TrEMBL record:
Name of the protein in question: SPOR domain-containing protein
GO MF, one annotated term: peptidoglycan binding
Classification via InterPro entries: SPOR-like_dom (IPR007730), SPOR-like_sf (IPR036680)
Annotated ranges, domain SPOR: 90-167
């Protein structure tokens, strides 16, 4: 037996040009390639995607090699690039932090830290919250919940994980 769940309704603001009470949100994207794919799917469904800038704060673990004077930091960065190809610098006052990597997944960061340790490079975990830009994709303009649900089912059948959004 299939159980129908009530679609999640998220408040939104209406744009002056729209008359419908509902729209579909086709995702909030960090990765541009995923956004492009979703836009193509929305167009296949016969809708024009609308894009809006957003932001998400993400907790990450950085692997800090150390703090150095700027010239020394650039040299250290070049030195570790063979072990840590994604290494980067972050300014910290008059100094520069040298980081071997930055991870969403704590276990993955620790596995990489262990690997670096075995290669003779010691790092310290540093926990940060990073604001990341998102692109929010919405589409459609539906006068009622029934029309929005019907379009949402079509979108889900095409692989989009959509939300029904009620405008104020």
């Amino acid at each position: 037996m299939q159980v129908k769940t009530k679609p999640e309704i998220v408040p939104s603001t209406a744009s002056p040009a729209s008359s419908g009470k509902y729209v579909l949100q086709g995702g909030a994207f960090l990765v541009h390639e995923n956004l492009v794919e979703a836009e193509a799917t929305v167009r296949e469904l016969g809708f024009e995607p609308r894009l809006e800038a957003g932001q998400k704060t993400e907790k990450m673990t950085r692997l800090r090699v150390g703090l150095y004077a700027p010239a020394e930091a650039r040299a250290k960065l070049q030195e570790i690039k063979g072990l840590a190809p994604d290494a980067f610098l972050v300014r910290a006052g008059d100094q520069m932090g040298v980081y071997a990597g930055s991870y969403y997944d704590l276990d993955k960061s620790r596995r990489f830290a262990d690997h670096l340790y075995q290669q003779g490079l010691r790092v310290e975990e540093e926990y940060v919250e990073i604001p990341l830009p998102l692109t929010i994709l919405t589409f459609g303009d539906f006068p009622d919940m029934a029309a929005a649900r019907q379009a949402a089912e079509r979108a889900r059948a095409k692989g989009l994980d959509v939300l029904i959004v009620q405008r104020h």
